[in-house]
Amino acid sequence: MNLDRLIAAAEAAADVAGAVIRPFFRAGLSADAKSDRSPVTIADRTSEQAMRAVLSERFPDHGILGEEFGLDRPQASLRWVLDPIDGTRAFITGRPSFGVLIALLEDGQPILGIIDQPVTGERWIGAAGRQTLFRGPLGGRVGCRPCPTLAEAELSCTSPEMLEGGDMPRWKQLAGKVRRNYWGGDCYAYGLLALGHIDIVAESDMKVWDWAPLAAVVEGAGGLVTDWNGQPLRVDGDGRVLAVGDPALLPLAVAELNNPSVASR
After folding, report:
1. Pairwise CA distance, residues 42 & 28, whole Å
2. Does the fold of domain 150-263 match that of domain 3-135?
3. pTM of the model
4. 241-244, strands of its sheet edge to edge
5. Rounded-to-integer distance, Cα 45 and Cα 66, Å
6. pLDDT tens per residue, range 214-243
């Protein structure tokens, strides 16, 4: 497997997605509601179609799974996973915390991931066995920061809504032990974790296109990404994602998320 060739293809896909998305940003774009009430726009759909075209041309035997257009070539052991705009709510309200997400799975495990912010020009590239790369005009250096205790940790989650259905008490148990917690961020929060500005992200209701690209980026920066039990993420998992910058935080965060006083509620 030529990893450099795969990374080049992923970057080319991110480039075309960005070219599609930028003209729509802060342009008064309307959004449709999907079956789960989440918003989708013409920018989401056109971005995914553009990425599919690039990847299919370069690797016609690879599978492609996208949030908007489903799965092609399901039997392929190598599968691209695409989220054309992660954070559509942020996008349609003019906030640059959304991103284009691209991952490559081999037999269900992420081996490559990209977070691309097409408006700010920032891009994170994670690949198995390599240090995460970061490019962007706003500055920043790759590397999760040391933070061995919850009392010093900065915690982030995209929205309270994703914790509905029983996860909010567990999340609050963790939030009560950290230095500060923040709402908002989408995939951008994981990029900031990889740059050493956030220490923990704990979220629910995550699909494979939401977490697979992030895992490669965070782990290539020295962090860990697991489920809320500290176990490896699976394509058929429960959608709960825990990312930590300092590996020492993992057992501490897992213990709070599974505290018997709240986990059984």
Report:
1. 12
2. no
3. 0.93
4. 180-183, 154-157, 200-203, 241-244, 224-226
5. 10
6. 999 999 999 999 999 999 999 999 999 999
Tell me the domain boundaries of the chain: 3-135, 150-263
Q: Pairing state of beta strands 63-66 and 70-72?
A: antiparallel
> Rounded to 5, what percent of the chain is helix, strand, coil?
35, 25, 40
d(CA 56, CA 79): 11
- Those residues with Cβ within 8 angstroms of residue 165's Cβ, 6 or more apart along the chain or in another chain: 204
- Encode pLDDT of 186-212 as tens digits: 999 999 999 999 999 999 999 999 999
| CA 70 remoteness from chain centre | 18
Nearest to 217 by CA among 201, 235, 234, 237: 201
Would you call 91 helix, strand, or coil by DSSP? helix
Cα three-residue angle 195-2-189, rounded to 5 degrees: 20
Dihedral over Cα of 16, 18, 23, 28: its sign: positive
> To the nearest 10°, the Cα dihedral for 136, 217, 222, 181?
80
- Written as one string, the DSSP assignment of 71-83 is EE-TT-SEEEEEE
CA dist 63 and 60 (Å) reads 8
Looking at domain 3-135, its CATH class is alpha beta
Amino acid, single-letter form, for residue 87: G
150-263 CATH fold: D-Maltodextrin-Binding Protein; domain 2 (3.40.190)
Question: What is the distance between the alpha carbons of residues 211 and 18, in angstroms, rounded to a whole number?
Answer: 20
What is the rounded end-to-end Cα distance, in angstroms, of the chain? 47
